[in-house]
Amino acid sequence: MSSGIPSATISRLVTYLRILENLEGEGISRTSSTDLAERAQVSAFQVRKDLAYFGRFGTRGMGYTVPVLKRELMRVLGLTQAWNVVILGIGRLGEAIANYPGASEYAFSYVGLFDVAEGVVGKEVRGLNVRHVSELAAFATANHVDMGFLAVPPEKAQDAAQMLVEAGVKGILNFAPVVLQPRAVERHGASEIAEEWRGVIVENVDFLAGMKRLAFYILNPHLRDLEPEETA
Amino acid sequence: MSSGIPSATISRLVTYLRILENLEGEGISRTSSTDLAERAQVSAFQVRKDLAYFGRFGTRGMGYTVPVLKRELMRVLGLTQAWNVVILGIGRLGEAIANYPGASEYAFSYVGLFDVAEGVVGKEVRGLNVRHVSELAAFATANHVDMGFLAVPPEKAQDAAQMLVEAGVKGILNFAPVVLQPRAVERHGASEIAEEWRGVIVENVDFLAGMKRLAFYILNPHLRDLEPEETA
DNA sequence: TGCTGTGAACAAGTTCACAGCA
DNA sequence: TGCTGTGAACTTGTTCACAGCA
After folding, report:
1. DSSP B152-211
2. Is pTM beyond 0.85 here?
3. Nearest to A216 among B40, B78, B108 (CB)
């Protein structure tokens, strides 16, 4: 609902931005909706419509200038400012996330890593000492934290999310295969959204779900949206 | 397009299935569209509509029987059969995926792990010896492989995907922050879809994109779909 | 002339109201 | 009576045709 920018558009903008970075890396300075469309595997109409929600970034007859469009998309997506991130759950997955190259591009930076396990707390990961989650609240008071990544086991995800929210994060990237409830655990069942959850954004990254969708579409390929036949 | 089952419905079915497993684990044997809706954070209309695409699984006036609906959803999603999976790229992320609990639920099983790096090939991960990718084609001839997980660095993703497709996989779960092109690399630019790519399903799991979407929605919370106010 | 930007047509997906059955 | 199942209304998102400017 609301002011009407499709969430699919946001996902596509992220893709366009990545393509622009690659083009820039290859030293290509101009592109077009047709070119972007092919690289992003969408239609050129879609590219132009997506961009039009946010402004006029091209030149009629000429196309787009790579660095200009890149800068504009970074601005639109909020990637020109600093983002402080904590990770909860430094198991194999949390560690892989912390070390994944590209995450620290733009101004994302990991400022704190938290876990509960004996062998993990105190360990050094990507130049940070893993702290015990009991320190999270104090840490968040002392340091500005914008978002939290949740990489704990599924059964602990709701509690851990609650801690993040109480620590004041504005967004959660949830890797656990769980639908987070915007309310404290004890209050589960009450249909009220807990006050501390108001305005908190949750984005899910769920590979087990992806794996199951993949199984479904392998068995039912005709139900998969075909790729656009023409890129004009 | 096509026969008209929204892809969002498939994602939600995966969620419903997970909820049913949890309910079963708690010993709860009956549920309703309202209950499922609350746990899945969607509307009850949506739950009923999603299920109705595939059959009639409930009892009017009574709701759904947990084990029955669970079994039906597993059948619908294709999770009652065996799926042989290979992973390409056994870095930190690939290893985390291989070891993630829950992946081997249902009949998903990792049958082969592949990499190119010296220190990685030969290593034992989850009871499997990591092989060199040069063995992939022969491996796929000798063993039935249904899907491949792609956890290689972005710049190698397209080539690696091509190998998977040539090895005959029917689906790719792509963890690399790259839009895979359904064509061989040398042929990039030709708008023809390469023959070997016909019918191959690609599903993306892209946490860097999720992180950027999160940044956007933190700055523009009003553009985020609000949660359904009522669950009736 | 060429490619962007955009209002209008269309298609897809969601919400709803209620019919139908235990 | 209660909760599912579903056609119809509606809303959202995509496609299109073309106007508009370098």
Report:
1. S-HHHHHHHHHHHHHTT-SEEEE-SSS---SS-STTBTB-SPPGGGTT-EEEE--HHHHH
2. yes
3. B78
